[in-house]
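Take a specimen:
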Amino acid sequence: QVQLVESGGGLVQAGGSLRLSCAASGRTFSSYAMGWFRQAPGKERDLVAAISWSSGTTYYADSVKGRFTISRDNAKNTVYLQMNSLKPEDTAVYYCNANPPTTPWGQGTQVTVSS
């Protein structure tokens, strides 16, 4: 069974940085585009960044462009999200999945940015 395990979240002050990791097990994701999604309380889950299987193409939501960087290591079946210049509005639970999503969601990792 496919498992996605997100980690690296935490509490950080505005302007700080965090690096999220997503480890996939049970199936190789090397041939899939992957994405980081986030869901704030009372809001829908939205895509914030995506990366092609070869890392040749990336996408960023306008709200995070220039601050977040997505990357992947196919040998480790891991996807990363480097988040810099964090803002309180980045507070959410962050999830990874294929893009578009094709597997059950993991538990996510909470990111809280204080002002």
